[in-house]
């Protein structure tokens, strides 16, 4: 049994707290919201995970020192917009070599840094890894079979993460492509917004398949240009995560997109979903990365137009369909 800590008690942090407890670890979970700590401690149920019992042995605290000191594993599960600020708060509490696993997904708008890069910048003494894949908290917390990938800078660290999380219902693979894993997990949220918008407009399965397929093409083009590995975008944190996020009503990005497609503004959609819609925060950063690496991102471009420039969703779909004719795969075209 190891002492582990979850920083952030949203649905994903809570689901992982339950998983790690069931794997035999002593779990402490931290929240910045006193009312949330009281709710979780007393009711033993997360309001967004109805029917999922939180074991009595999982401890909840608002004290970062209690949450961070003498832990073999710290899981960073705060929303992406709070990753840097939370890392700053805990930096002085983290010893050399501390294993920190980031499980949130996003890109910082001003620096264009991934979340693990932000953690490494603020806590340079830590050993930072990531865990990502098609893994809705609603299903993981109920013990439904799920697969993810653990990424780290060394295979030793990746395997440590694998050992902490692996269970009969939660299978974990390892990878050294941290950048590719994080880009896949972040950019798929933007594509999921597009898929939701199409659903809200009443488009069909053909449209959804097109957005998923062309969406992973955009993600892979940008990711490979930045140094990620093509195989990663064909895997769990790439096409796998994209499929589940575009298809499931558990996806807050898809749900927000549906509302936007029905005529809601971006703010109205986010308020209706009542959860952080990560794709909204990653959309601008993704577009900036495309410009920086000279990669064309037509779907991400149109999502930005709808979110921030008052473009109607219907016009965005027409713009995508009426783009200049092109070949599907440039490399195959060259071979001919």
What features would you describe in this structure?
This protein is an alpha/beta fold and 336 residues long. It has helices at residues 11-22, 34-43, 64-68, 83-90, 115-122, 137-140, 155-165, 178-201, 205-226, 230-233, 236-247, 252-261, 266-273, 278-292, 298-308, 313-321, 330-335, and strands spanning 3-7, 26-30, 59-61, 73-76, 99-102, 127-132, 146-151, 170-175. Strands 3-2-1-4-5-6-7-8 form an eight-stranded mixed β-sheet, with helices on both faces. α7 links the parallel β7 and β8 (170-175). The model has no long low-confidence stretch (mean pLDDT 93).
Question: TL;DR?
Answer:
The protein has 336 residues and is of the alpha/beta class. It has an eight-stranded mixed β-sheet with strand order 3-2-1-4-5-6-7-8, with helices on both faces.
Topology:
Blueprint: E1 3-7, H1 11-22, E2 26-30, H2 34-43, E3 59-61, H3 64-68, E4 73-76, H4 83-90, E5 99-102, H5 115-122, E6 127-132, H6 137-140, E7 146-151, H7 155-165, E8 170-175, H8 178-201, H9 205-226, H10 230-233, H11 236-247, H12 252-261, H13 266-273, H14 278-292, H15 298-308, H16 313-321, H17 330-335
Parallel strand pairs: 1-2, 1-4, 2-3, 4-5, 5-6, 7-8
Antiparallel strand pairs: 6-7
Helix pairs in contact: 4-5, 8-9, 8-11, 8-12, 8-14, 8-15, 9-11, 12-13, 14-15, 15-16
């Amino acid at each position: 049994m190891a002492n582990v800590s979850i920083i952030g008690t949203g649905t994903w942090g809570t689901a992982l707290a339950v998983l790690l407890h069931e794997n035999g670890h002593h779990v402490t979970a931290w929240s910045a919201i006193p009312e949330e700590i009281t709710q979780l401690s007393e009711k033993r149920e997360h309001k967004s995970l109805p029917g999922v019992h939180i074991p009595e042995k999982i401890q909840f605290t608002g004290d970062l020192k209690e949450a961070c000191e003498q832990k073999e594993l710290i899981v960073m599960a705060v929303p992406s917009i709070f990753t840097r600020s939370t890392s700053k708060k805990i930096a002085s509490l983290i010893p050399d070599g501390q294993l920190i696993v980031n499980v949130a997904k996003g890109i910082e708008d001003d620096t264009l840094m991934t979340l693990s890069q932000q953690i490494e910048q603020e806590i340079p003494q830590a050993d930072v890894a990531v865990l990502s894949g098609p893994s809705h908290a609603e299903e993981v917390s109920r013990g439904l079979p799920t697969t993810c990938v653990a990424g780290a800078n060394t295979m030793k660290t990746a395997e440590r993460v694998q050992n902490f999380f692996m269970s009969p219902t939660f299978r974990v693979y390892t990878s050294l492509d941290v950048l590719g894993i994080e880009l896949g997990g972040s950019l798929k949220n933007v594509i999921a917004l597009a898929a939701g918008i199409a659903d809200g407009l009443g488009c069909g399965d053909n449209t959804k398949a097109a957005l998923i397929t062309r969406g992973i093409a955009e993600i892979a083009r940008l990711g490979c240009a930045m140094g990620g590995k093509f195989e990663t975008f064909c895997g769990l944190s790439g096409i796998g995560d994209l499929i589940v996020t575009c298809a499931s009503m558990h996806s807050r990005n898809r749900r927000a997109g549906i509302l936007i497609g029905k005529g809601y503004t971006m703010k109205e959609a986010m308020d209706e979903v009542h959860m952080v819609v990560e794709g909204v925060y990653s959309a601008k950063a993704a577009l900036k990365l495309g410009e920086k690496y000279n990669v064309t991102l037509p779907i991400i471009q149109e999502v930005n137009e709808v979110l921030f420039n008052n473009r109607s969703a219907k016009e965005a779909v027409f713009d995508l369909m009426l783009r200049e004719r092109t070949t599907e795969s440039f490399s195959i075209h060259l071979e001919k």
